[in-house]
Amino acid sequence: MATEAYSTTTGQQQGGSAAAKPALRKPVFVKVDSLKPGTYGHTLVVKVLQSNNVSNKKLRPRVPKNQNSRIAEILVGDETGTILFTARNDQVESMNPGNTVILRNAKIDMFKGSMRLAVDKWGRIDVTEPATFVVKEENNLSLVEYELVNVVE
């Protein structure tokens, strides 16, 4: 019968610092045409083309009465294509037409069979200096409909 020995040493005793932060990874920027359904963790530089307010209603009773829920569909794009971005609450202000923004840790949500780009509480939206690229508006990824197919083996 084999016996196992477990080590109880800490990072401090091994010569490492317990308070040291891990090194941050460099962001890998992707293009709009490389986005696929169900993926997440994307970092993109996009231009805001147009904005459409979808909802501006009161939140549920558990939220203070002075807060409103705002949702807007924003058409964003780069030199490879466009996609609809769903902006919520404070994100709506930074997504003005003509702005160039960096979307960090963005994910793809599916809505009625089409892709939508979104940034949740783990992501970030940064307004940056105007980009020099021309947006390719002919390739709108949100117009492509997807269907979930279950394969039985």
From TrEMBL:
Residues 35-127 form the Single-stranded DNA binding protein Ssb-like OB fold domain. Signal peptide: none annotated. Residues 1-16 have a biased composition (Polar residues). CDD domains: SoSSB_OBF (cd04491). InterPro entries: NA-bd_OB-fold (IPR012340), OB_Ssb-like (IPR048970). SUPFAM superfamilies: Nucleic acid-binding proteins (SSF50249). Residues 1-20 are annotated as: Disordered. This is Single-stranded DNA binding protein Ssb-like OB fold domain-containing protein. It comes from Genlisea aurea.
